[in-house]
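User: Teach me something about this protein's shape.
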Amino acid sequence: MTPKAQKKTRVPAQAPAPAVEAALSAAVDAGDRERLLHGTHHDPHSVLGAHPVPGGVAFRAFRPHAQAVTVVSDELRAELHDDGDGFFSGLLPLTEVPVYRLLVTYDGTVHETEDAYRFLPTLGELDLHLIGEGRHEQLWRALGAHVTTHEQVAGTRFAVWAPNARGVRVTGSFSFWDGTGYPMRSLGGTGVWELFVPGIGEGELYKFEITRPDGSRTLRADPLARRTEVPPATSSIVHASHHEWGDAEWLARRAETPVHEAPFSVYEVHLPSWRPGLTYRELAEELPAYVRETGFTHVELMPVAEHPFGGSWGYQVTGFYAPTARLGTPDDFKYLVDRLHQAGIGVLMDWVPAHFPRDDWALAEFDGRPLYEHHDPRRAAHPDWGTLEFDFGRREVRNFLVANAVYWCEEFHIDGLRVDAVASMLYLDYSREPGQWTPNEHGGRENLDAVAFLQEMNATVYRRCPGVVTVAEESTAWDGVTRPTHHRGPSGFGGLGFGLKWNMGWMHDSLQYMSHDPVHRKYHHHEMTFSMVYAYSENYVLPISHDEVVHGKRSLVSKMPGDWWQQRAGLRAYLGFMWAHPGKQLLFMGQEFAQGAEWSEARGPDWWLLDPEYGAEADHRGVRDLVRDLNAVYRSTPALWQRDTDPAGFEWITGDAAEDNVFAFLRHDAEGTPLLAVSHLSPVVRHDYRLGVPDDVPAWAEALNTDAARYGGSGATHPDVVKPEPHPWHGRPASIRLTLPPLATVWLRPA
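Assistant: First, the predicted structure itself:
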């Protein structure tokens, strides 16, 4: 085998230099030799390389499979003695260590290369101090693989945290996967191992060969690899970014208005299946145009970090710092984000710090003992997903995750992180039976380590990345999910510090209401109104996500009762209610055009339903057009988003019209300008339906009607303005009479 090197030449064999007579005094001693051979040496640089000793300078090289090694410099050429097992040494009568190179002979071919063991460490004291304290907010710049020039020599520096390892070696395509000759050095008590390998650059495959405490070895991908092979291959790849960003204008603007006071309408996307087969760069040509056409302000990408099993949709991550290679390189993903920003579209991504899979080449027992996972098996094993939970109490693990959140925002210009499965992190007894968990130090069920981690992550991201928002998928009544971390609530905890929280209660209740036959809905009226009891307890997102249209739950339109017309009408009315309700919106791909089939990550959305050649295309194009118009009116109407978190931005007109299946309310912007939203969820027309209204609006005009014929509705619209009458109703001094279309939502605003 012939390792790659910086330079290859053929030279004739040289006679042994006179200095090699002193080889015995320079040879690696038996103990060091044994540790180097078995991959358990903690400081190979103290043995290998060139070192001043009595009588000159000792040169020692460890080059398995080499036939000869020669030291060369401007004024020196000396062949080292072959000490066997790949060790070569020589004592040269020099007064100081020269700048030298090695000529290594394999099967008659000579490779000229730098000696990796002549270099000082590539990590400085500040890096090591911050790593040791768990406070390195740009950890990815210290650990992992980095193409660099060190002491005027080009190469790649490798660094990995493995405090329980007896030894670590780096191996890869540059060594034909024989890491014997590339032992790394341990840098003090930080648990970090480091090696600068001259002459190799981006594109090389690599892994870390770790000798466990029991002496066995394991080959591991780099936890901080920024690029990986395409699964199922698992090697890490040395990466250097060359992308030049063009989104400066977007970044400068995004922090101007707080997210909870801005329009925020999200299209959730699973990139591999949105248009199956497209790469990041191909998606960049289609996705921004489609999202812009349909009017969403943001996309939310299901997890893009590398994961071994595509069927996990990205929620079982092994490469926390690497976009999945299935769709292209990290620079290709940056290109997609860049193009979305240039189209005026924000980019959120799902982030999964709650757990990780047990693959034996990834994080599980990374250095032979529990490291990233909790040392207590009861707290390490996630009871639902067969995965492992992070040890949030370990500062280096918190650092790994906090820096990872910052990494996506700083390196990839991500505008927001939707944090998956927060509830499973917050509770020690989550999905666990009595006896399967241990209370915290106060006797409670709260995971204090996870609370501290989430607070640190949120505070760090908001401090470092202006305009970025964090969003919690949290399904319980935990107090203060979106409260600032320095504000304590009744529970005694500071807020978790998220910007927004998914409103799982609204999602569950409203979908349950819509699934009832209209004749029975009057008995479930509260399922649509209860959300307003707690609407201002957090800053909410109303999520109709992928979780609601998969695994037998049926697509959104298929949840609606009745015939096909009623199903589509019910969906349109529901979307109109959703867009008017306080809170931000999120809709999963395919639901914007009433796809009838459940989502399949293998097939993706049924785009053919929008094809004009399909006979009933208006059925689906009409719903898509409605979503486009909902977004357009929403964005141009501050009453629908400016006071989402302010109770003064909402007023019920009637929340108790259960017999009629009617819900009517006002939304107000910061100036007090109202929008009237009326949802009628019965399949009949109600003529001259009276609703109380303020008396300071001289006339109302229809801003949107989900029953419009162009959306596939019956066309029961209000073409003219509607003027109030001095007839008190619903506790108001004036009222209007409307024709309520069947299964429809109508928005009116001052004419």
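Now, about its shape. The chain has five domains: 7-115, 125-237, 269-352+394-500, 504-627, 640-750. The domain at 269-352+394-500 is CATH 3.20.20.80 (TIM Barrel). If you'd like, I can walk through any region in more detail.
User: That's plenty for now, thanks!
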